[in-house]
Amino acid sequence: MKQDIDWGSLGFGYIKTDYRYVSKFKDGKWDDGVITEDANITLSECACVFQYSQSCFEGLKAYRTKDDRIVCFRPDMNAKRMADTAERLVMPPFPEDRFVEAVKQVVKANADFVPPYGTGATLYLRPFMMGTNPVIGVKPADEFEFRIFTTPVGPYFKGGAKPITIKVSDYDRAAPHGTGNIKAGLNYAMSLYPITVAHEEGFAENMYLDAATRTKVEETGGANFIFITKDGTLVTPKSDSILPSITRRSICYVAEHILGMKVEHREVLFSEVADFAECGLCGTAAVISPVGRIFDHGKEINFPAGMDDMGPVTRKLYETLTGIQKCEIEAPEGWIVEI
Ligand code: PLP
Ligand code: COI
Fold first, then answer.
1. Considering only Cβ atoms within 10 Å of each terminal Cβ, which end of the chain, N or C, has fewer?
2. Does the beta carbon of 243 sit less than 6 angstroms from any atom of ligand 1?
3. DSSP alpha helix (H) spans, the chain
4. How many Å apart are CA 112 and CA 15, to the nearest integer?
C-alpha cells in the first residue's frame, strides 16, 4: 500500500496512479490493449474529440475487503452502458468482456492504490473513449482510443455522509440536440455553468427538472434521486433523459428483494417532493448521500428525517448496499468481481 497517502482525508480528486489501460481502434478493429505508465495523450489539434466532443465516460470503483481482497461492483453493467453510449455517439463499442478484463488488469496493476479497508476511501476507475483522428466536416471519427485510469477517492460531497443542500436549477441539462436518451457521459459540458452557479450560491448540487415542462424531477449533475415516502416506499424518478444509474438500479433490487420494501420507479412530480419523508442522491461517486434541504427560488423543502444525519430508511439502504460492495453481506449472483 502507498505509504504517503492520507487515505482517511481524501476527497473526490485526481491522484495520478502508476498504471492505466489503453486500447486503440484503427482500420475497423480494436488492438490488443496494453497497461502503460504514460498518463498523457497526444492528439491532432483537429481530433474529433476536440472539435465535436466525440467522447464518453463511465465510472466504477474497486473496494478492499476486511480480509484484504480487492473486488469491483458490477463492472459488466458499466461495460454494457458504455457500449450503449458508444452506439448513440457513433463510436465502436469496446467489447464488453474485454472491458471487464481491462478493469481487472488496471486494478491489479494499481493494487497499491486501493485504499485500506475501513478508511472510507475506494479506488475510482474512469473508463473513457474518444474520437482521435482529424475531422473537420461534421461527422464521426473513424479512429478511437479507449482508456481506463484510476484514482483513489474519498466522499464525493464535502462533509462525507452529512446531509447536503441542493437547489432547483434554473437551467436545463438536456442534450444540446434536445433528444434526451442520455446513456452516460454525454453533454456534461452543459452542466458546468449550472454547477458553478450552484456552488457559488453555496449549494452542493442542482436538481434538474424535465426540460419540456419543468414539472418533473430528473436527476442532479452527477447522481440519480431516491425518495422515501412516509409509509416507507422507495420511489425513484423514471425518465429517458437521465443516466440509468447502476447504483439506483442496485438499490431498487436490494430494497425489493433483500429488505422487502415496496419500490416504485415512476415519473415524480416536483409538486409531490415536499410530501416525501427522506431524499437522497445515489451514484458510484455519491454512493448514497442524504439531502436535507432543497431550495426552490426562495422556498425551502426540508427533510427533517435527514437533516442532521441519514434518515432511517436511507441508512438501511446505505448499509445494505455498502455491505454488499465490501463483501460483508451476500451479494446477488454476479454482482461482485474478484480482482
Ligand atoms: N447520473 C449522472 C448524471 C451521473 O454522472 C452518474 C454517475 O456517473 C449517475 C447518475 C450515477 O450512476 P451510477 O450509479 O451508474 O454511477
Ligand atoms: C460517478 O458516479 O461515477 C460519476 O461519474 C459521477 C461524476 C459525474 C463524478
1. N
2. yes
3. 48-52, 75-88, 96-109, 192-200, 246-253, 312-325
4. 13
Q: How far is it, in rounded angstroms, from Cα 174 to Cα 22?
A: 31
Is any atom of ligand 1 closer than 6 Å to the C-beta of 246? yes
Q: Answer for the pair 183, 242: CB distance below 8 angstroms, yes or no.
A: no
Nearest CA to ligand 1 atom 3: 222
Ligand 2: which atom is nearest the Cα of residue 245?
2
Ligand 1 touching residue 301 (CB < 6 A): no
The rounded Å distance from CA 284 to ligand 2 centre is 6
Q: Beta strands 278-283 and 287-296: pairing type?
A: antiparallel
Q: Per this entry, what is the length of the chain?
A: 339
For 261-313, what is the HEC assignment?
A: CCEEEECCEHHHHHHCCEEEEEECCCEEEEEEEEEECCEEEECHHHCCCCCHH
Query: Does ligand 2 come within 6 angstroms of the Cβ of 306?
Result: no
Domains of the chain, each with CATH number or no CATH: 7-153 (3.30.470.10), 164-325 (3.20.10.10)
CA 96 to chain centre: 18
Per-residue pLDDT of the chain (339 residues; tens, 9 = 90+): 777 899 999 999 999 999 999 999 999 999 999 999 999 999 999 999 999 999 999 999 999 999 999 999 999 999 999 998 898 889 999 999 999 999 999 999 999 999 999 999 999 999 999 999 999 999 999 999 999 999 999 999 987 778 999 999 988 875 543 344 444 556 688 888 999 999 999 999 999 999 889 999 999 999 999 999 999 999 999 988 888 899 999 999 999 999 999 999 999 999 999 999 999 999 999 999 999 999 999 999 999 876 788 999 999 999 999 999 999 999 999 999 999
Q: Which three cell numbers stand for residue 2?
A: 502507498
**Predicted model pTM:** 0.95
